[in-house]
Specification:
Elements (H helix, E strand, L loop, with lengths): L2 H42 L22 E3 L2 E5 L5 E6 L7 E3 L3 E2 L2 E6 L12 E3 L6 E2 L11 E4 L5 E2 L12 E4 L3 H5 L2 E2 L10 E2 L2
Parallel strand pairs: 3-6, 4-7, 6-8, 7-9, 8-10, 9-11, 10-12, 11-13
Antiparallel strand pairs: 1-2, 2-3, 5-6
Length: 197
């Protein structure tokens, strides 16, 4: 074969390689566009948005300011109630009676880790009016009796983490009311709840 005979074959092969190269580039661009769309949808919450109204919705603080009343720290919530955010109670306390009021405001929420590492607790009473219990609130209260109010609406993910062998968990409401409490992941121990009404 002469160079003249090879030239058309080489040109055809080059055109074929160019077409393959262009096709590969188009596929890569399509993948990049698809991934970008997925990232934007995921960030906006639209990708996995569910119709599940049972999502945990922590209460909203009115401000970042923290107040004190005795051994308790609390934050004001937008609904005019308060959330306990921390406690200066002795870690070896055996009984915990959470107050109904702090600073003249009704307690409606217990914030994340507010009573964590109180390992000697035998009894914990959450007052009526509390609707929300945050993450790891009773972490380390290994075998206490826990009394929950009938007003409870939400228990956040891992709220009972480390609450391994409770002496009992009692809910002041009915079984129907308990079935309506939104319970986050990591709270399997709550399967032991006894409804008192």
């Amino acid at each position: 074969m002469s160079k003249r005979d090879i030239a058309p074959i080489a040109k055809t092969a080059a055109n074929g390689k160019n077409r393959i190269g262009i096709a590969v580039i188009c596929v890569l661009v399509a993948i990049i566009v698809a991934l970008t769309v997925l990232i934007v949808l995921d960030a906006s919450g639209l990708l996995y948005k569910s119709d599940n109204s049972n999502e945990i919705k922590p209460p909203k603080k009115a401000s970042a300011e923290v107040f004190k009343d005795g051994a308790y720290s609390y934050s004001l919530l937008t609904d005019g109630t308060v959330m306990i955010t921390n406690s200066a109670l002795p870690r070896d306390a055996t009984e915990l009676n959470i107050p109904e009021m702090l600073g003249g405001y009704k307690v409606s929420a217990i914030g994340e880790s507010a009573f964590a590492l109180m390992t000697e607790l035998h009894t914990v009473r959450v007052p009526e009016g509390v609707t929300y219990i945050g993450k790891a609130v009773f972490f380390g209260a290994l075998n206490a009796k826990l009394y929950l109010p009938s007003t409870l609406k939400q228990i956040d993910n891992g709220a009972m983490e480390g609450f391994d062998e409770p002496a009992g968990i009692y809910f002041a409401g009915t079984e129907k009311a308990w079935s309506e409490v939104v319970i986050g992941d990591g709270n399997a121990i709550l399967a032991r709840v006894v409804c008192e009404n």
